[in-house]
Amino acid sequence: MLQENYKSKYGDFTFTITINYNKKTIETHFPNVTYNNTFEEKLRNIIFLDDQKDFGTYSYKDESGSSYTEVVMLNKNYSNKVAPNVILSNNDFGVETLMSLFYTYKLISVSYE
C-alpha cells in the first residue's frame, strides 16, 4: 500500500532501546540518530480492553499538541519492565507488540543486565 501511494519501497529496520531504571532514562538508538528521554516524558496509562489485562490502548499528546492512540499487546511470559520506548504505569506483563497508525513495534529479543 505505501509503495503504491508513495512510489518507493519501505523496508523493515532494527533499532535498540535501552531503558535505565536507575537513571530513569530511555535511549532509542536508530540507524542515524539517538533520542534520549526521561520516564516522565514517556509515562503512559493503559485502558485495558479485556479481563486478562493483556490487551489495551493508551493515548497521549506530543510536543505539538497532536493526539495519538496506540494499541498495546502484553505477554505474561515477560516482566512488566519489558517495553519499547514508553513506560507503562499499570501493566502486569511485558509489551510484545505496540501498534499505531504510523508504525508497529514487535519484540524480537530481550536481554537483562
Account of the 3D structure:
By secondary structure, the protein is mainly beta. The protein is built from 2 helices and 10 strands. The protein has helices at 2-6, 39-42; strands spanning 16-20, 25-29, 34-38, 43-44, 47-48, 55-61, 67-75, 87-88, 94-99, 104-106. Strands 5-6-7-9-10 form a 5-stranded antiparallel sheet, with no helix packed on it. Strands 1-2-3 form a 3-stranded antiparallel sheet. It has a two-stranded parallel sheet with strand order 4-8. Strand 2 and strand 3 (34-38) form a beta hairpin. The radius of gyration is 15 Å and the shape is globular.
Sequence stretches where pLDDT stays below 50 over 5 or more residues: 1-5
| Whole-number mean pLDDT | 86
Largest sheet: 5 strands, antiparallel
Structural class per helix/strand content?
Answer: mainly beta
Total beta-strand segments: 10
Rg value:
15 Å
CA distance, first residue to last residue? 40 Å
- Give me the oligomer status: single chain
Query: What would you call the shape?
Result: globular
